[in-house]
Amino acid sequence: MNVDHLHRFLIEYQTDVKATKEDAQAILDNFKHLPIFQKKGLHLDAFFRYLFGDLNTPLSSTPGVHQDMTAPLSHYFIYTGHNSYLTGNQLSSDCSDVPIIKALQRGVRVIELDMWPNSAKDDVDILHGRTLTTPVTLIKCLQSIKEYAFTASPYPVVITLEDHLTPDLQAKVAEMVTSTFGDMLFTPGPECLKEFPSPDSLQKRVLISTKPPKEYLESKSIKEKGSVSQKGNDLAEEEAWGKEVPDIKPKTEAEDKTAPDVEEDSEDDEDQGDGDHKQTTEPEYKSLIAIHAGKPKGGLKEALKVDPNKVRRISLSEPALEKATLTYGTDIVRFTQRNFLRVYPKGTRFNSSNYNPHIGWMHGAQMVAFNMQGYGRSLWLMHGMFKSNGGCGYVKKPDFLLNSKDNEVFDPTASLPVKKILKVKVYMGEGWYLDFQHTHFDAYSPPDFYARIGIAGVPADCLMKKTKTVEDNWAPVWNEDFEFPLTVPELALLRIEVHEYDMSEKDDFGGQTCLPLSELRPGIRAVPLYSRKGEKYKNVKLLMRFEVVTV
């Protein structure tokens, strides 16, 4: 295959109509140092090496950030952590700055800290309240955020604070935050912003988001969450590779009579510390808040009203959001065009599992907060979404979630026509022989691999299919074709998993990845697979072909 042949291959098979002969020559030049290279061009082994190589990635070849970063912050999905300081489960694991550092290094842009008085009441600890988690000091967390905030991305980091402090400790927090971050801190003053600034204008800046202190003191009527003894026995055993991502089931009002008019399970509305706090606020603390949280009196309907003169954030747990979407689906979409919605895991996820993130994304929620220290299929979707836009932690929301036509907004429950069809061919896989011990899957024979391919997205688009099982082969060849009709391709993620069939026990895990359809490159591509914890294997890849057809 000489340079002309390779150029033709890039145009005809990889559908890269802009490919030049110089591009083809650059690929050939990469193989010149190898013994398998011949002066005339690539022979079959070298061409195969190119197909499976790192140059032939499945995602957009445009490196780095390529979306418009000058729109208000509310126009983006933001990579968001929940209880970012926990090393493990929600009940008894250690609190540390290590998971915060790991999250920032992965590109997470929203870090959550729960602030409580220490035992002497003279300093601030970070821990999960009313549990057996061991604390870490606030100052240690702040210093680590400062050091690692912009290692993976230059775009702003938001610290969401859950505040259980007395006014004197709030003043101490204000001093710690200002002395730690200095000019990095974005502080618009005590009043709410009229519109959020853009990620571009906030590069290398840190923003604080919490409820103003006075509102904390007024929210004393919410019942306290259950104690550790009530919570303990709910830890569910997950399958070897994690539970299947839960469906977003469209309920009716009749099915769910508890659909509230009020936001009843918000972390923002928890009992906020001791009842004898003085009704005073520390002006230094309040002036730190860039994104004001909390909701007005009058329940969710009132909270979702869009104020043209100020922007803010509200928080809903995953079940509260599910209930709210029954009645207020389009109101939520309209609210999130200017304001922030943060969604967080329900309180019974003690093992730090997660939920289906699309329930938030399809309603425009910017901060879909996840337990980043866990692993499982839901978290794989989160990793997949934020592979977009150069992995910078900000992904521009699709236009249909931002625009209103004749005052009508996107209705997530509407039945929509198919817009695109994704065609996928799974050729083969390789790399397990190099990355796994040879008795890892079967003690006495090579593995029996099969692949699962599917879509995560709006409910109408979700579908999983599987290949046949190829027995006794470290480099399985499947050669199978699949098609996936898509009504909302803008939110679709391609799910890919490989498992090893085991007749007597649970099937073994062989790798996974999740790819945003919006950045999928057509043509024959080498798809790297990742471990259950989201760590990239050195050699394991699938060879696949992608084609997106507009209907």
From TrEMBL:
Keyword Cell wall biogenesis/degradation: no
Keyword Lyase: no
Main localization, broad class: membrane
Domain of life from the UniProt record: Eukaryota
Stretches of the chain forming a coiled coil according to its record: none
Keywords (A to Z) from UniProt: Cell membrane, Hydrolase, Lipid degradation, Lipid metabolism, Membrane, Transducer
Bilayer topology annotation: Peripheral membrane protein
One example GO MF annotation: phosphatidylinositol-4,5-bisphosphate phospholipase C activity
Disordered: annotated segments: 218-284
Stretches with biased composition (Acidic residues): 261-273
Substrates-to-products reaction catalysed: a 1,2-diacyl-sn-glycero-3-phospho-(1D-myo-inositol-4,5-bisphosphate) + H2O = 1D-myo-inositol 1,4,5-trisphosphate + a 1,2-diacyl-sn-glycerol + H(+)
Entry protein name: Phosphoinositide phospholipase C
Organism of provenance: Thalictrum thalictroides
